[in-house]
Amino acid sequence: MRPAIELTTAGESHGPAITAVLTGIPAGLAIAAAEIDADLARRQCGYGRGGRMAIERDRVRLSAGVRHGRTLGSPICLVVANRDWENWAEEMSAQAPPEGWAGERRVSVPRPGHADLAGGAKFGHADMRNVLERASARETAARVAGGAVCRKLLSVLGATVRSRTVAIGGVRDDGFDGGAEAWERVEASDVRCADDAAAAAMRERIDAAREAGDSVGGVIEVVAEGLPPGLGSCATWQERLEGRIGQAMLSIPAIKAVEIGAGGAAAELPGSQVHDPILPSGDGAWPFARGGNNAGGIEGGMTNGQPVVVRLAMKPIPTLTSPLPSVDVTTGASTAAHAERSDVCAVPAAGVVGEAMLALVLASAAAEKFGGDCVSDMLATRRHYLERLPLPWQERRTRDDES
Ligand code: EPS
After folding, report:
1. Is 1 a member of any domain?
2. Is the dihedral of CA 97, 101, 102, 104 positive or negative?
3. Backbone dihedral angles phi then psi of residue 165, each to the nearest 5 degrees
4. What pLDDT, in 10s, does the model give residues 178-210?
5. Which atom of ligand 1 has the smallest separation from the CA of 132?
6. Can you give the pLDDT at residue 380?
7. Confidence band (pLDDT; 50, 70, 90) for 403?
8. Strand, coil or helix: what is 395?
9. Is the pTM of this model over 0.85?
């Protein structure tokens, strides 16, 4: 099964630009570069980011698929220029280097935890800069640009996608109440944490890691609200939403584990304490309530009308200024791993990337469910679906048989 909406990215960290091509977005969606830029700016923020973010001011150029502020239904091309390119133009040039060029920024000592060693072996690159330039998390700027368009489509369909930091370097915020004010505090926080005391302790952890030439990871929660039941499918394994979300999230650099709802904790408990009771509700639109949300909004590979709640575990960034032991691949000699400018902690930025990837998967599932080449067709199908949802099962069947 091919997803209705697909995102492809290209570009090297210090090349001219990072580019995304987004296909499957219906025509007629209002989208302004400024809306995409707002998410790009959110991705650049965060306590613990490195020197690169002082150079970049990520802005999108919409070079295809949008005219006069609305999507055309054709592939959308989103280009984010790398300002640092001008400092790397010769190093990263597509042309053959001049005679006698030394290549000062060659990388021959792989960093434990980074793509350097495996990528150098796989692609046959002696200079592992050829690997790290693409493996760099700079690529996620393109994902966030494409994700912003998906977020806009979801917003037209009545859904939101947000994220917050649950933990950094072992310091946790377990008291989040999910209220509007708490979400506002997340957006105002440079570690994307609503609890001031926890946020201060997270910053201290980051400072301590920086002092020690080390790095820290953490845990992020991404939440989508306002989705109807029935996105995704139990019909084939490829359509199951947990699997699609898992693939999308685990493809984000440094994300090593994904949990949906209660996640791994559910494995420790009996079923009676895990599954969310189904209760009648006075709400005419969807006359069922749930006794909890351990399912994280997904049952049988489909949204169930509850918020979709996904947690991501991010490992510490592999570039350490007090490097781990490694081997120079050109000489075979033991030496300290390559070190270059990097982030001490990118957990807050990864939250924004997680939003983009969840928006991509959910927008695609919505496009598969509701179809339509233009937004108004999609909205009409959705309206029809939402009208039939609250009908008692028997009445629905009769109505469908008649039509
Ligand atoms: C990043 C840009 C990179 C790094 C970071 C993410 O910039 P530079 O390598 O020029 O400092 O800050 O990349 C990594 C963490 C990595 O492992 O490569 C960005 O735009 O997010």
Report:
1. no
2. negative
3. -85, 130
4. 999 999 999 999 999 999 999 999 999 999 999
5. 18
6. 98
7. low
8. helix
9. yes
Residue 109 carries which side chain, given as an amino acid letter? Answer: V
Q: Reply yes or no on whether the pLDDT at 399 is more than 70.
A: no
Flag whether 161 is in a domain: yes
Each residue's pLDDT tens digit, 110-119: 999 999 999 9
Which SS3 state, helix, strand or coil, does residue 137 take? helix
Ligand 1 proximity of 82 Cβ (cutoff 6 Å)? no
CA 145 to CA 40: how far, in whole Å? 7
* Ligand 1 centre distance from Cα of residue 268 (Å): 38
Range of the domain at 192: 6-91+104-261+296-383
Domain harbouring 327, CATH code: 3.60.150.10
pLDDT score at 49 = 94
Helices 33-44 and 140-156 pack at an angle, to 10 degrees, of 130
**pLDDT recorded at residue 391:** 79
215 CB near ligand 1 (under 6 Å): no
What is the 140 CA–ligand 1 centroid distance (Å)? 10
Q: What is the mean pLDDT of residues 252-259?
A: 98
> What ligand 1 atom has the least distance to the C-alpha of 50?
12
Residue 120 placed within a domain: yes
Strand segments (E) across 65-192: 66-67, 70-71, 76-81, 160-168, 171-172
> Lowest mean pLDDT: which of 8-12, 39-43, 235-239, 384-388?
384-388
Ligand 1 contact, 266 CB (< 6 A): no
Cα–Cα distance for residue pair 44/54, rounded to 1 Å: 9
What's the domain count of the chain?
1
Ligand 1 pocket mutation, candidates 342, 344, 345, 353, criterion most atoms within 8 A of CB: 342
Q: Which atom of ligand 1 is nearest to the CA of 253?
A: 17
Cβ–ligand 1 distance for 75 under 6 Å, the answer no
Cα-to-centroid distance, 128 and ligand 1 (Å): 15
Q: Which atom of ligand 1 is nearest to the CA of 140?
A: 21
Q: Is residue 31 part of a domain?
A: yes
Kindly give the distance from the C-alpha atom of residue 344 to the centroid of ligand 1, in angstroms, as a whole number.
Answer: 10
Q: What is the whole-number distance in angstroms between the Cα of residue 312 and the centre of ligand 1?
A: 19
User: Does pLDDT of 171 surpass 80?
Assistant: yes
